[in-house]
Amino acid sequence: MGYGVLLWSLDEPEVISGAVLPVYVKSNIEKKWIVGFPETPDSNKKVKFEIPFTQLEYHPTKRRALEAAEIFAPHAMSYAENLLDGLPIRDVPDNNARRVYRLRSGEVIKILGLSEGIPPIGTSGDPLPGDWYKVMTNDGVSGFCFSNRLRIFDQ
Questions:
Q1: Tens digits of per-residue pLDDT, 56-97?
Q2: Same domain, residue pair 66 and 126
Q3: Rounded distance, CA 56 to CA 133, Å?
């Protein structure tokens, strides 16, 4: 059917973020992809498993998936822990933009990429230190979050 780039690492089965996986089925009812990877390089048997729509970026060809994986590679292993209860995720990288989600303190989000945007202004009147990141929550909400209240780490 196509190929996908895994956006959020999996524990069972163990697959790292940024991996390109063959996509066999799209289940609109369960909102999941059925994907696979070879069990071993010498095996013809394929292991298939399900992942939520939000955790895979679908591409119709392997070439496009490999290109997308290459662009995603610098952030494939990057995650962030929220340090401030209620920190907003916004629909565009601007502190005045619409909030699409409020993070709980300690919530872990996936970093999808670095974004251009205007830094928020602190109480001193100066721009806050940090960067805007495109992010995704574990339940699939995507948007932009400013990094001054995030602890960014690699998996």
A1: 999 999 999 999 999 999 999 999 999 999 999 999 999 999
A2: no
A3: 18
Domain of residue 135: give its range.
78-154
> Which of 24, 29, 30, 31 shows the shortest CA–CA distance to 3?
24
Q: 35, 50, 72: which is the final residue of a domain?
A: 72
My answer on whether 33 and 63 are in the same domain is: yes
- Prediction pTM value: 0.85
Task: Residue 143: name the closest of 133, 152, 151 by CA.
Answer: 133
* Number of domains observed in the structure of the chain: 2
Residue 63: strand, helix, or coil: helix
- Residue with token string 């290459």: 70
Instruction: Judge contact between 37 and 49, C-beta under 8 A.
Output: no
User: How many CB atoms are closer than 10 A to CB 148?
Assistant: 15
Burial of 64 (0-12, 13-18, 19+ CB in 10 A): middle
